[in-house]
Amino acid sequence: MKYVTHTINLETTEPVHIVDITEEVKKALTASCLKQGQMTIISQHTTAFVNINEYEPRLMDDMVTFLKRQVPRDGNYAHNIAPIDGRDNAHSHLMGLFMNSSETIPFNQTGLMLGQWQSIFFIELDGPRPKRSILLHMAGE
């Protein structure tokens, strides 16, 4: 068994920003030279997450609208009284309760074993942020 790690760094430009990282993940898998195994993709942040869903522009707009409706930014949140980093971002942490910080995807010689309509997204909930990172950990042969 061989292990390979890779980091994807990116910048987000919106308060809630959904970034399709599928192609970057595929490139990292190809560069690993692994032929079969599994990849874990993990956000290294508490207000940004990883998700597998369909890439369709109107659906992505719907996702952002859904999240903002569920947890409004101007809610009365205790975390915002004295935030650790000076950001009133309780809503971002609370939106994250609907998501996973990581996803694990099997792969074989043909690539990631995603369904026909599945894409991999990095979902920023506390943007904009100049530097965000996603760790890819691949295990295989």
TrEMBL record:
InterPro entries according to UniProt: UPF0047_YjbQ-like (IPR001602), YjbQ-like_sf (IPR035917)
Quote the Pfam families the UniProt record gives: YjbQ
Q: What family is this?
A: Belongs to the UPF0047 family.
NCBIfam families registered for this protein in UniProt: TIGR00149_YjbQ
* Protein name in UniProt: Secondary thiamine-phosphate synthase enzyme
Q: What is the lineage of its organism?
A: Bacteria, Pseudomonadati, Chlorobiota, Chlorobiia, Chlorobiales
